[in-house]
Design goal:
This protein is of the alpha/beta class and 393 residues long. It has two domains: 193 residues, 3-Layer(aba) Sandwich (Aspartate Aminotransferase, domain 2); 115 residues, Aspartate Aminotransferase, domain 1 (Alpha-Beta Complex). Helix content is 42%, strand content 13%. The chain contains 14 helices and twelve strands. The strands form three sheets. Strands 1-9-8-5-4-2-3 form a seven-stranded mixed beta sheet, sandwiched between helices. Strands 10-12-11 form a three-stranded antiparallel beta sheet. It has a two-stranded antiparallel sheet with strand order 6-7. The two termini are 31 Å apart.
Length: 393
């Protein structure tokens, strides 16, 4: 157990002033939620916005809505992605079908996708993992050819554009998350957006059945948020990181996804989300630029505000060694998802022993560098020195 300054792998700007806005939102209730929805409509240029209790809840509501529009029951998802994506598909009563990923871009392998989508496919979920923009033109063509919907998992990509368009607005529906450590946080929460009248109407019907959170939920959210504001700071983060029951950084498969509407408290905390997002993404872009130079990474389209910077170690042993050294020094370098989706014990039998080589490679070798505003220049130098001789891509 480390005692002392510890950098969280992911963190978002949140102040006690934002908590005060949250308290005001708790009293305003529906008015705070309506204001938030309208703000996101204007900023993202979308027609329909539905705030919910988490990004996973937003995805689950979207899938059940699409299910009401079609008799198809298969959902194609990346073989290397957040476990909650697969859990939402299963809880919606749908069948997850895996498509391997491109180990270079982290997005869906377009060749494999064309082979995977069929007349049984209800929708394809394409992610922007860690905020790295996926190229969706090929996925859109495949979906259109087979009559399937395209959902963007932009839970890790709020505030990032591709060709001048906000990620999360390029498909039939987009999912965002306001969870701890995202680009903008309200402690927890999520949102689904769409420009499609048909999809928006279906989600709207499902949304009407979603219960409002009980009053006690706002008190719990207030307490959790105050603790997060205090203990996310590097000089104190070692305390919650040392408590095993909090399971910070653990990748878990959620057996039951709770669906509630966003609370007024959480909506109030997001009152200044655009200002916070701009400051957060500026700091992330600077970090990405620094690590790109220090580690001689391919610059791509230039510095982007990645939620975390993904890099690939030479081999699994190197990744394990780097993560262990970073943990001892409190540097916030962490592995990503420990297994591909087909190896999650709770649902492994669904995939009949199929293998996905690129997903397996990433689960063994990918690690992520923190990019948030809490990193000092000394932190960045230490992280770069740790990783400099171990990076493969």
């Amino acid at each position: 157990m480390r005692i002392g300054r510890t950098i969280p792998p992911a963190a978002a700007r949140l102040s006690l002033l934002d908590v005060c806005h949250g308290i005001a939102g708790a009293f305003e209730g529906a008015r705070a939620l309506d204001a938030l929805r309208e703000d996101f409509r204007r900023q993202l240029g979308v027609r329909h916005v539905f705030p919910l209790s988490s990004g996973t809840a937003a995805l689950l509501v979207t899938l059940t809505a699409l299910k009401s529009l079609s008799s198809r029951r298969e959902v194609v998802i990346p073989a290397f992605t957040c476990y909650s994506v697969a859990a939402a598909v299963v809880q919606a009563g749908l069948t997850p079908v895996l498509c391997d990923v491109d180990a270079t871009t982290l997005g869906l392998d377009e060749t494999r996708l064309d082979e995977t989508v069929s007349g049984r496919t209800l929708c394809v979920i394409a992610h922007h993992l860690f905020g790295v923009p996926a190229v969706l033109a090929g996925a859109r063509r495949v979906c259109e050819r087979h009559g399937a919907y395209l959902i963007e998992d932009a839970a890790q990509a709020l505030g990032i554009d591709a060709d001048g368009q906000p990620l999360g607005t390029l498909g039939d529906a987009g999912i965002f998350s306001f969870g701890r450590g995202k680009h903008v946080t309200s402690g927890s929460g999520g949102m689904v957006v769409t420009n499609s009248s048909r999809v928006g109407a279906a989600i709207g019907r499902r949304y009407q059945t979603v219960a409002a959170p009980p009053r006690a939920a706002q008190a719990v959210a207030f307490l959790q948020t105050v603790l997060m504001v205090i203990f996310i700071r590097p000089w104190l983060y070692w305390i919650p990181a040392a408590l095993p029951f909090l399971q910070l950084g653990a990748t878990l498969y959620p057996a039951n996804i709770a669906i509630r509407r966003l609370t007024g408290f959480q909506a109030g905390m997001l009152r200044q989300w655009r200002r916070r997002l701009a400051r957060s993404n500026e700091a992330r872009s600077r970090c990405v630029s620094y690590f790109t130079r220090a580690l001689s990474l391919a610059g791509g389209a230039g510095p982007r505000p990645y939620l975390r910077l993904p890099i690939v170690a030479r081999d699994a042993e190197t990744r394990q060694r780097l993560c262990a050294q970073a943990a001892r020094r409190g540097l916030g370098v962490a592995a990503a998802y420990p297994t591909p989706i087909n190896e999650i014990p709770e649902i492994a039998t669904v995939f009949d022993g199929r293998r996905y080589p690129s997903a397996a490679q990433l689960s063994a070798r990918l690690l992520t560098l923190p990019t948030h505003h809490l990193l000092s220049e000394k932190d960045k130098r230490a992280i770069a020195a740790l990783c400099r001789d171990a990076v493969a891509a």
